[in-house]
């Protein structure tokens, strides 16, 4: 049962529960010694975000998003937002001022920032569950939510990438929209959060669009209850989009359309959608009947579509439509989070249970509820986001980060119903069913089952052993010798790009970023070509060192692609005469080869 007033008056207890969940998660991370501070697990994005923050603190301009130490000479422009860099940099500056240690300040930021986001995400999830199912859903939402967010890994120590910010803001937007009927400012703040999550990255476009469409459709169905909400949401969304556009886009780039980052495209669409929705909700002639509301919103949608088709048609293509075929084959097709559900079913069926089970259970629960006539505003909003997130996750597994989060709300409501039944009847059958509901709702249970299944499959054991070798390629200690060498350009595979930048002062060509096309192709040309081809590239681009990680899955893939190539030769011990091994790195996870003078 929804209890908006109870939810509005109990925010302090929800904050305390979310804080407790954060402290437990922090204690778990502390128990491992915050190992992610020295072992990022191959997560390039977390490391490159740290590099980006360092560059900004070192004097790189607010509007200058170049990564000068990656790619060809001069670098390339990243598609990330300074909105995420700023709070991380602020934490570093404050701790640095207090302690005088930059290294300690960075460590504190890598612990504090994801912990803060974890706390806020659990809090907003709890508030959303309370709005949907009342007080009985609060405890399940904290337990199931905290377990789910710990499981998906985006709140781990060192998680500076923007996916945790996006999930927190999206959950906040949903939570506020659920509370909007009883909280006057909630809809405005919901629009603000929706605009901010869009500004942080384009991955959330499906969820922001779903929230906006849901607000519009609720307004069509119920003018008296939803007109103020639609108006305030639209104003918040359009207003904050304008502020973000002015604050993060230089005047010289106001006319440049970028499909993969917040730019004039997203601003124009957000301004039209937000102000249009607010205007329709405010004008009596346009909103007097549901037919007029539907027609007005249809015209608004047509106008937005016409603007996009006529002015920004390039943004209607698939996200990686223009990616070089070699990069698609040798990079994109091997990114774990970019795999589809069908690919996982074919190659990693155990992983499917870990990522898709709880969202699927939640969808089934909501479908059953709706079939029984329980079609309320609150459940409709949650169901819309959950279904869209599940569809996105079927396309790319990264969408499961959101579907797992949204699933916590209906799962908590399900557990809440069984808790209430236990209060009425404590029979063994009822208690066992409640226990089963708890178990089915926790991701760790499905993950454990998936891990057990993997052990049974003999092929999975081989993968696990290979993964351990692969992980050693990305630990901080593996780059210590490189960090002590004079700065130069390092020829390395793309997955070593961000670690080289984070753990040393060197520059690299390759990194797993779709805008770094020229740098990635140059590295492929060097590694897949002959030793003579590599020698020419090394000479033309002033390369001083070559880095090799034999245990890397990427290295093995490239060697298999070109068994007679330069990289394959290095992996088999064939060192050309223009390279000399750096003796102290022999046998290390990262082996270094120095380019001979005059070679």
From TrEMBL:
Keywords: Membrane, Transmembrane, Transmembrane helix. It comes from the Bacteria. The keyword Transferase does not apply. The chain crosses the membrane at residues 108-125, 137-158, 204-221, 233-255, 261-283, 295-321, 350-368, 380-396. This is GtrA family protein. It comes from Mesorhizobium waimense.
